[in-house]
Write a structure and sequence with these properties.
Oligomer: single chain
Low-confidence stretches: 111-115
Shape: globular
Mean pLDDT: 92
Number of strands: 5
Helix content: 25-40%
Number of domains: 1
Strand order of the largest sheet: 1-2-3-4-5
CATH class: Alpha Beta
Radius of gyration: 13 Å
Number of helices: 3
Order of helices and strands: EEHEHEHE
CATH topology: Transcription Regulator spoIIAA
């Protein structure tokens, strides 16, 4: 299945929906969306992963890149990942850097954007 990524910004939260297979040929598209997200200075990055069927090491590298670029003050959520994706996150230890959740986090009150 072809990879697709779409993004939405709501307040200080960037949400991305990933669909298909995230591998070396599609990691560039994901990285481009991450770069756009970094420019939004979000407090949270929410990755909707229920329809992501596969993630290769290239996809994991983009997740690591995202965490580094966004910094430790930005929460990263993996929402509803399939078992294979969870297994990859756990085997690599990246589950310590991301919240693996069944539902997106509730919106936080709008307290203004960080500068």
């Amino acid at each position: 299945m072809a990879f697709k990524v779409s993004s939405q910004v709501t307040g200080d939260v960037v949400s991305m929906t990933l669909v298909g297979e995230l591998d070396a040929s599609s990691a560039g598209a994901f990285k481009s969306e991450i770069d756009k997200a970094v420019g939004q200075s979000p407090r949270s990055l929410v990755l909707e992963l229920k329809d992501l069927t596969f993630m290769a090491s290239a996809g994991l590298r983009v997740l690591i890149y995202a965490k580094q670029k966004l910094g430790s003050g930005v929460s990263l959520y993996a929402v509803a990942p399939q078992d294979g994706i969870v297994s990859t996150l756990r085997m690599t230890g990246f589950d310590k850097s991301v919240y693996i959740v069944d539902q997106p986090p509730p919106p936080t009150p709008d307290t203004g954007r960080r500068t």
